[in-house]
Structure formats: structure tokens, C-alpha cells
């Protein structure tokens, strides 16, 4: 926590508390400063007794009866001698133009700061509290309340006379009051009451919890969060009360409003003041602790906590111990917490000190990060909030970060950060580069050169410095790489490429692409392939227009293994581009990549089959030879090789299935007939392609065939399955035929509309006569063609059925007459 300026000579417990807080890594939520200038002068001779805060100024009351108006820096702007004794409370209206003051000798004054309007009265008992109407400046709101042994409401009548009314009495001294809108809240010895100034009704009574505490030593703290939310702090208890409207049906003789306690919880220490902060609470606490040495109770530093209220408990957000002057002698009643709603400023008032707490801004956040040496987070925070920060500059934070990394020995990270931090500031770049070189951090120096914008420096000077260094250490890879980068900046790409290839550095491909150096690498293809064949092949294939396939193959002629890598990748991309090299590739695949030989033979349509067959037979590549024989039409030789070389009945059966040739099946059966394992395989797989009886009849009597029973059962099951499939298909066919027949019948039974628009398809005249009284005869076919009966030819002698001439002529099937109309 930030301490409030210089420390007083304190107890051992105080210094221990401070040391614990210094070790805390949690960033404080508030920052603190002592209100000085005129306040310091006042409190050297007097003691503060109360204070109130307005957005424009402060009003401070003292034990010697003075009231001082101060600006927000603590400078005195006005002074009022109100009483020779202690000022108990000061109240301001919202406009800041009227002030009410009460003192221990019973004096009450309400007056205008900028007008002659005033009220003076002296009572026969100490007046502890005063509150003027928030809108006292209005003529209709000339009201204020005072409290001693009873609570009095003063109102100015129409003749400018003041009249008073007792709002409450009989429960001890009134010690706290807060007026908000139309509601007045006050506390006496028994609890807290709220009065509605409009309805003239008291609407609630909230009793205090701990009656063992003396109300004069541990007074109640009140504050309004808004017009209907009252926060009560008394002893160690906090209650948040909400004023609500009562439903009309519940009124009867009750007040129109009621109070509901929405949150209630206990705190660790005694409450001296409360203030709202958004949906949180700021709590000023009086702390008593027990000394470990003397076992006596002593007054510790007061605490300012930010808490998050919950329904029955609270969550602590932050907690700060405040070193205020004279805290060792203060009591709970000596502390007050005042706040300015507009600016979230909190004033901690004690007899000898006034401390201001305010929310930390982005500059304060950056200060804390720099103090904790969290430079990267500080830099990020500054960049995000660069429009809002006032005391910090991004460049200064960045330079401090670089220096911190260098001091810590993180040279490589420091070098990488230069690009972001230094921007295009040439002077700073040169300074940082030479600093790295001077301290001997070549790696960091190289990183700087790599990330250094090329237009910020005199390249020749740096190149010469690196070359001088290489004379002493010619094999230093870091400096060689740096020199290559400098050559690149200087557009001397040939020298840069030569160094990259010597170092076998991955950036060589990026350099070639970026600066289009393909003409320079035509004689370096082998070097590039040796370095990284995959990247080199991808680059060469992507740029065929710059380095032809023919040129690459020629360059790799003495390195057939690399030639194969290139041609294989080319074939994968396009089966036809390298067709002139397919014959060469057969040998390359056979030598370096047999697993891909068979896929190549299957996909290539340009390789000579005879040459491929010769190579595969020389190397005894059975599978490839089988494929080539079958592709060349010599399926019987291929099958024979499978059976004789591979002895694989499953593969032989699969091959026969693919070829779908009856002669192959016959050859397979003949070859297998004296080999029981082959017979078993055939029995298990032949059923759906060849009649199993052909095989079973040829099995010699007495031959032992493994798993014969299972094979025969499988044949029978396959046969039954085929029968069931046929029956099922037949049922489906019959059902579909019947369904379609019924559908056709329903369609043909439907009537056909014949009107004046229809014509005879033969004579093309209207189908219906113009004179409906004349007799006529019309024939309508299912195809919807219509004819006059006399226009149709006579049916043949072989068939009495009559068909549509048009549909019959178009081979769409005859349409028989469905309707003959006569009249």
C-alpha cells in the first residue's frame, strides 16, 4: 500500500506491518497523499473535528471552533470563527452556496456563502449534528435538521420566520444524520430511523446490533448510495437498506414506504466511516491490536478497505493500512470518512491529519509495474492506454525494458525487443547496435542486425566492421549469418546466397523467393537438394517457368537418388508433365523406392511395359511382374506366377475375380486340384463366381481337405442366401408391379375434360361441333389424344382393339380408347 508521506516515530508493530505490506505483490486499488498546504498549517495549531466535501471545495471544522473553506489542494480560501469550542458537524447543500454549522456549545448557524441569508440560534445543550436540505438554495426547500437530545426540523415560513418541529426524542443523543432527496436518516443510542419529509412519516427503525459498545465512543456511520439505498455501519456490523414503495393494497394505516435490508454482514474491525464505490463499499476501520511483547492493547493504524457486499457476507477486494499522524492516540470516534461522488475521492479525517485516497489511474498502474520490474507488462499497458497516460512515454518505458534485459543477461530477448521499441529512430538503433557489439554479445548483435530496418543505418560501415571481426574468427557462424543479412540489405544477393549455402541456413530458400534469384541457382541445384531436398523440390516445381524440368534433371544426372526424389514429386503433382522420363523412373523406383514402383506402374500411361517387365523380372519383383503381365493381356502367366511364386491362393482368387475370365478359373481349379489348402480357399470363395459343383466333382476320393465340412456348409449357406435374395426380389417386383397397375387403373378411370379448345388430331378441327344440337361422336385415348370417330381408320381384322395413331407412330406404345362420346 502507498503510505501517506513521511512516517512518524512509531511502534514496533507499525514497522512490522509496513514490512509485510512491502513484500505484497498485489497492486493496490487506491493511491494516497496527505492534504497539505493550508491544512498542514491549521493542524499544527489546531485539531480537525469534522469535514464535509463538495465537488468545488472542502469545509473543515476544528476543535477550536473554526471553519475553513479549502480548495482541493488544501489551500485556505475562507475562514469563519463560529465558536470557541469544538465544531461538531458541517453541512452543505448540493449547490455549495449554503452551509450549516453546529458546535459543542449549542450554537447552530445556517448561512449563505455568497448571500446575506443566515440563521443563528444557541441551544441549552450541545448540538451534535446538522443537515441542510440538499436543495436549500430553492425557496421551497428552506429546511434543515439539528440533533442533540432530540431531532428538530426547522422550516422557514412565508413571512421569513423559522419554525421548528420535533421529529424524534427520548432515545438519547442524536449522533449522526444524512439527508438525501426526501429522506432523512439519523442514528441515536437505540438505532437508525428514516423520516419521509413529504409524507411527514417515520418509515423504519433499524435497531443497533451490539448494545455493549458505547455509542459516543463508537458512533454510527451513515451514507446514502443513491436516493433509496442507505448504508449503515455501526461497530463491526454493516447493513445495506433499500427503501421501497408499499403496494396500495397493503397500506391501511402503514407508511407509504418501507425498508428492506438487502445485505448484512460483519467486518473484522470497528467501522469509522463508509462510502460507496460503484457496486462496492469503501470502509474506514479503527483497529486495535495486542502487543506480543507486553500483551497490552494498543491503537494500530486505521485501515481503508474496499469490499464487495454479498447477501450475508462480503468479499475483500483490497485492504490498506494508513499511517496518519497521531494514530496511536486516536479513538474510533476521531476518524471520519468523507467522499466526493463526482471524482471518487475519499478523505480520511483524523485530528492531526487529512489523507486523500483516490482511484489509481493508468500512470499509477505503470508506476507500480516498473517498481516491480514488470517492464513488459508496463510497456503493454502504456501502448493500450497511450491516449490516457500523462506522466509516462512509451519510448522511455521501452528503453528501460531493454536496459533491464541487458543487465539481466537476456541479450537475445533484448535484441528482439529493439525492433518494436526503437521504431525508425536511427540514432537509437546505432547506439543499441554498438552497445551490443561493445559488450561482446554477438548473438544479440546478430539479432539486432536481422531486425534492424535497412534504411536506418550506413550499411557499409557495419559490413566493414563485421568483415574485420571475421578476419580474426573466420568460422564464426553468427557473424557469417549477420554478414549475409547485411549483404541482403545492400542488395548484394549473390554474396548473401553463397554464405547461406555455405552455412546451410534455412533462410536460403526465403532469400531466393524474395529476391527472385532463380537464375543464380541453376548450377547450385545439387547443393540445395543436399541441404533440404523437400524444400528444394517444392521450390523448383513451383517455378518451372524459371528453371525447366529438363535443366533440373540434367543437373541431377550424377545424383540419381536426388533425381528420383525430384521426378517422383513431379509425377505426384502431374502424371503427364514428366512423361519423357517415365522410362528412366522405372529403374529409379526399382533402385531407390520399390514401395512406390507398383503405384507408379498403375498410374503411368507413358512407361513402356516391355521395359518395365524386363526390369521387374530381372529383380524378381513378383507383384509388379504379375501386374505388368495382366496389363499386357497375359493373365494366365500372371496367375501362374501368383500360384507358383507367391503360393497365395487368396491373391490368386482375387486376381481371377478382377479378370472375370472363365478360363482363368479353370486354370486355377486345375492347379489347385491336388493341393488341399488351395481347394479349401477355392471352396470358401468360389461360390458367387463359379458353380462349386465343377470343383467338387474333380476332387479325388480319399483326399483329405482341411476344414472341408465348414467350406461345404458355407457353400450351402451362400446358396440359401442367393435363393432368399431371389425370392425377396421377386416379392418386391410383384408388389411393385401390382402397385403400378392399380395406379394406372386409377389414372385411366379418371374423366377427361373435353371442351371447345380441344382439336381432332387428324383433321385439326375443333373436337366439338359449333352447333351443339347436331349429333357427334368423339374418341379419346388414354394418352389424351382426341379424334372424331369418322377421322379414325377402321380397326384391323386381326384385332378389334383401336389404338392412337400418333402414339403408335412415335413408338410410344399404343393407347387404347378409354372413352367414346356420342350425341
UniProtKB/TrEMBL annotation:
<feature type="compositionally biased region" description="Acidic residues">
    <location>
        <begin position="14"/>
        <end position="26"/>
    </location>
</feature>
<keyword id="KW-0458">Lysosome</keyword>
<keyword id="KW-0967">Endosome</keyword>
<keyword id="KW-0813">Transport</keyword>
<dbReference type="GO" id="GO:0031902">
    <property type="term" value="C:late endosome membrane"/>
</dbReference>
<feature type="domain" description="RING-type">
    <location>
        <begin position="760"/>
        <end position="808"/>
    </location>
</feature>
<keyword id="KW-0653">Protein transport</keyword>
<keyword id="KW-0863">Zinc-finger</keyword>
<dbReference type="Pfam" id="PF23555">
    <property type="entry name" value="zf-RING_Vps41"/>
</dbReference>
<dbReference type="GO" id="GO:0008270">
    <property type="term" value="F:zinc ion binding"/>
</dbReference>
<dbReference type="GO" id="GO:0030136">
    <property type="term" value="C:clathrin-coated vesicle"/>
</dbReference>
<dbReference type="GO" id="GO:0006623">
    <property type="term" value="P:protein targeting to vacuole"/>
</dbReference>
<dbReference type="GO" id="GO:0031901">
    <property type="term" value="C:early endosome membrane"/>
</dbReference>
<dbReference type="GO" id="GO:0005829">
    <property type="term" value="C:cytosol"/>
</dbReference>
<dbReference type="GO" id="GO:0005794">
    <property type="term" value="C:Golgi apparatus"/>
</dbReference>
<dbReference type="InterPro" id="IPR036322">
    <property type="entry name" value="WD40_repeat_dom_sf"/>
</dbReference>
<dbReference type="InterPro" id="IPR057779">
    <property type="entry name" value="Znf_RING_Vps41"/>
</dbReference>
<dbReference type="GO" id="GO:0030897">
    <property type="term" value="C:HOPS complex"/>
</dbReference>
<feature type="repeat" description="CHCR">
    <location>
        <begin position="537"/>
        <end position="681"/>
    </location>
</feature>
<keyword id="KW-0472">Membrane</keyword>
<comment type="function">
    <text>Plays a role in vesicle-mediated protein trafficking to lysosomal compartments including the endocytic membrane transport pathways.</text>
</comment>
<dbReference type="InterPro" id="IPR001841">
    <property type="entry name" value="Znf_RING"/>
</dbReference>
<dbReference type="InterPro" id="IPR045111">
    <property type="entry name" value="Vps41/Vps8"/>
</dbReference>
<keyword id="KW-0862">Zinc</keyword>
<keyword id="KW-0479">Metal-binding</keyword>
<dbReference type="GO" id="GO:0034058">
    <property type="term" value="P:endosomal vesicle fusion"/>
</dbReference>
<dbReference type="Pfam" id="PF23556">
    <property type="entry name" value="TPR_Vps41"/>
</dbReference>
<dbReference type="InterPro" id="IPR000547">
    <property type="entry name" value="Clathrin_H-chain/VPS_repeat"/>
</dbReference>
<dbReference type="InterPro" id="IPR015943">
    <property type="entry name" value="WD40/YVTN_repeat-like_dom_sf"/>
</dbReference>
<protein>
    <recommendedName>
        <fullName>Vacuolar protein sorting-associated protein 41 homolog</fullName>
    </recommendedName>
</protein>
<dbReference type="GO" id="GO:0005765">
    <property type="term" value="C:lysosomal membrane"/>
</dbReference>
<dbReference type="InterPro" id="IPR011990">
    <property type="entry name" value="TPR-like_helical_dom_sf"/>
</dbReference>
<keyword id="KW-0072">Autophagy</keyword>
<dbReference type="GO" id="GO:0016236">
    <property type="term" value="P:macroautophagy"/>
</dbReference>
<dbReference type="Pfam" id="PF23411">
    <property type="entry name" value="Beta-prop_Vps41"/>
</dbReference>
<feature type="region of interest" description="Disordered">
    <location>
        <begin position="1"/>
        <end position="33"/>
    </location>
</feature>
<dbReference type="InterPro" id="IPR057780">
    <property type="entry name" value="Beta-prop_Vps41"/>
</dbReference>
<keyword id="KW-0968">Cytoplasmic vesicle</keyword>
<comment type="similarity">
    <text>Belongs to the VPS41 family.</text>
</comment>
<keyword id="KW-0963">Cytoplasm</keyword>
<dbReference type="GO" id="GO:0009267">
    <property type="term" value="P:cellular response to starvation"/>
</dbReference>
<dbReference type="InterPro" id="IPR016902">
    <property type="entry name" value="Vps41"/>
</dbReference>
Amino acid at each position: 500500500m502507498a503510505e501517506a508521506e513521511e512516517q512518524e516515530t512509531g511502534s514496533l508493530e507499525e514497522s512490522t506491518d509496513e514490512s509485510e505490506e512491502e513484500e505484497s505483490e498485489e497492486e493496490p486499488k487506491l493511491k494516497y497523499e496527505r492534504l497539505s498546504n493550508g491544512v498542514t498549517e491549521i493542524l499544527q495549531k489546531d485539531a480537525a473535528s469534522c469535514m464535509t466535501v463538495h465537488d468545488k471545495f472542502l469545509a473543515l471544522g476544528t476543535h477550536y471552533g473554526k471553519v475553513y473553506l479549502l480548495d482541493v489542494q488544501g489551500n485556505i480560501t475562507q475562514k469563519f470563527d463560529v465558536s470557541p469550542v469544538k465544531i461538531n458537524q458541517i453541512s452543505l447543500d448540493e449547490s455549495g452556496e449554503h452551509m450549516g454549522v453546529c458546535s459543542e456549545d449549542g450554537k447552530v448557524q445556517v448561512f449563505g456563502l455568497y448571500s446575506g441569508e443566515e440563521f443563528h440560534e444557541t441551544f441549552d445543550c450541545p448540538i451534535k449534528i446538522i443537515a441542510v436540505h440538499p436543495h436549500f438554495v430553492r425557496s421551497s426547500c428552506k429546511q434543515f435538521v439539528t440533533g442533540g437530545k432530540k431531532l428538530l426540523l426547522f422550516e422557514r415560513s412565508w413571512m421569513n420566520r423559522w419554525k421548528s418541529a420535533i421529529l424524534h426524542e427520548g432515545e438519547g443523543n442524536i449522533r449522526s444524520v444524512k439527508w438525501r432527496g426526501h429522506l432523512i436518516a439519523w442514528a441515536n443510542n437505540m438505532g437508525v430511523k428514516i423520516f419521509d419529509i413529504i409524507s411527514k412519516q417515520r418509515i423504519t427503525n433499524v435497531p443497533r446490533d451490539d448494545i455493549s459498545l458505547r455509542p459516543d465512543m463508537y458512533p454510527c456511520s451513515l451514507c446514502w448510495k443513491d436516493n433509496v439505498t442507505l448504508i449503515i455501519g455501526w461497530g463491526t456490523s454493516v447493513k445495506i437498506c433499500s427503501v421501497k414503495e408499499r403496494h396500495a393494497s397493503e397500506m391501511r394505516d402503514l407508511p407509504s414506504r418501507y425498508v428492506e435490508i438487502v445485505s448484512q454482514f460483519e467486518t473484522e474491525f470497528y467501522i469509522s466511516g463508509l462510502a460507496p464505490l460503484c457496486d462496492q463499499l469503501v470502509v474506514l476501520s479503527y483497529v486495535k491490536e495486542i502487543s506480543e511483547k507486553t500483551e497490552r492493547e494498543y491503537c494500530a493504524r486505521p485501515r481503508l478497505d474496499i469490499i464487495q457486499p454479498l447477501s450475508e457476507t462480503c468479499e475483500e477486494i483490497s485492504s490498506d493500512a494508513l499511517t496518519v499522524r497521531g494514530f496511536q492516540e486516536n479513538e474510533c470516534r476521531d476518524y471520519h470518512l468523507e467522499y466526493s461522488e463526482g471524482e471518487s475521492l475519499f478523505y480520511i479525517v483524523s485530528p492531526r491529519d487529512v489523507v486523500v485516497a483516490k482511484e489509481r489511474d493508468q500512470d499509477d498502474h505503470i508506476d507500480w509495474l516498473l517498481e516491480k520490474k514488470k517492464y513488459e507488462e508496463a510497456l503493454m499497458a502504456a501502448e493500450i492506454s497511450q491516449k490516457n497516460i500523462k506522466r509516462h512515454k512509451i519510448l522511455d518505458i521501452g528503453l528501460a525494458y531493454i536496459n533491464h534485459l541487458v543487465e539481466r543477461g537476456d541479450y537475445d530477448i533484448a535484441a528482439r525487443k529493439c525492433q518494436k521499441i526503437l521504431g525508425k529512430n536511427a540514432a537509437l538503433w546505432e547506439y543499441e547496435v554498438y552497445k551490443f557489439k561493445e559488450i561482446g554479445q554477438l548473438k544479440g548483435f546478430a539479432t539486432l542486425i536481422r531486425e534492424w530496418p535497412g534504411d536506418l543505418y550506413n550499411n557499409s560501415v557495419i559490413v566493414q566492421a563485421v568483415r574485420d571481426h571475421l578476419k580474426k574468427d573466420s568460422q564464426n557462424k553468427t557473424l557469417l549469418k549477420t554478414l549475409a543479412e547485411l549483404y541482403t540489405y545492400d542488395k548484394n544477393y549473390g554474396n548473401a546466397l553463397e554464405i547461406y549455402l555455405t552455412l546451410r541456413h534455412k533462410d536460403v530458400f526465403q532469400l531466393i523467393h524474395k529476391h527472385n534469384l532463380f537464375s543464380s541457382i541453376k548450377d547450385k541445384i545439387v547443393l540445395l537438394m543436399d541441404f533440404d531436398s523437400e524444400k528444394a523440390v517444392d521450390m523448383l516445381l513451383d517455378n518451372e517457368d524459371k528453371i525447366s524440368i529438363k535443366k533440373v534433371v540434367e543437373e541431377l544426372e550424377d545424383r540419381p537418388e536426388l533425381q528420383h526424389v525430384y521426378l517422383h514429386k513431379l509425377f505426384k503433382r502431374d502424371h503427364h508433365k514428366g512423361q519423357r522420363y517415365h522410362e528412366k523412373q522405372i529403374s529409379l523406383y526399382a533402385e531407390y523406392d520399390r514401395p512406390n514402383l507398383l503405384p507408379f506402374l498403375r498410374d503411368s500411361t507413358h512407361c513402356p511395359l516391355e521395359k518395365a517387365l524386363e526390369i521387374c523380372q530381372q529383380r524378381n519383383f513378383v507383384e509388379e511382374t504379375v501386374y505388368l503381365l495382366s496389363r499386357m493381356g497375359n493373365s494366365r502367366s500372371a496367375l501362374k506366377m501368383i500360384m507358383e511364386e507367391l503360393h497365395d491362393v487368396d491373391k490368386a482368387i482375387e486376381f481371377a475375380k478382377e479378370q472375370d475370365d472363365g478360363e482363368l478359373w479353370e486354370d486355377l481349379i486345375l492347379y489347385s486340384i491336388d493341393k488341399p489348402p488351395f481347394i479349401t480357399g477355392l471352396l470358401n470363395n468360389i461360390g458367387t463366381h463359379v458353380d462349386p459343383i465343377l470343383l467338387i466333382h474333380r476332387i479325388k476320393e480319399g483326399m483329405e481337405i482341411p476344414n472341408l465340412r465348414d467350406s461345404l456348409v458355407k457353400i450351402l449357406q451362400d446358396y440359401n442366401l442367393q435363393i432368399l435374395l431371389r425370392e425377396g426380389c421377386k416379392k418386391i417386383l410383384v408388389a411393385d408391379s401390382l402397385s403400378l397397375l392399380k395406379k394406372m387403373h386409377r389414372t385411366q378411370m379418371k374423366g377427361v375434360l373435353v371442351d371447345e379448345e380441344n382439336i381432332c388430331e387428324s383433321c385439326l378441327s375443333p373436337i366439338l361441333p359449333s352447333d351443339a344440337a347436331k349429333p357427334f361422336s368423339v374418341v379419346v385415348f388414354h394418352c389424351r389424344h382426341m379424334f372424331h370417330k369418322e377421322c379414325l381408320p377402321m380397326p384391323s381384322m386381326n384385332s378389334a382393339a383401336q389404338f392412337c395413331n400418333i402414339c403408335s407412330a412415335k413408338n410410344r406404345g399404343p393407347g387404347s380408347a378409354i372413352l367414346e362420346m356420342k350425341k
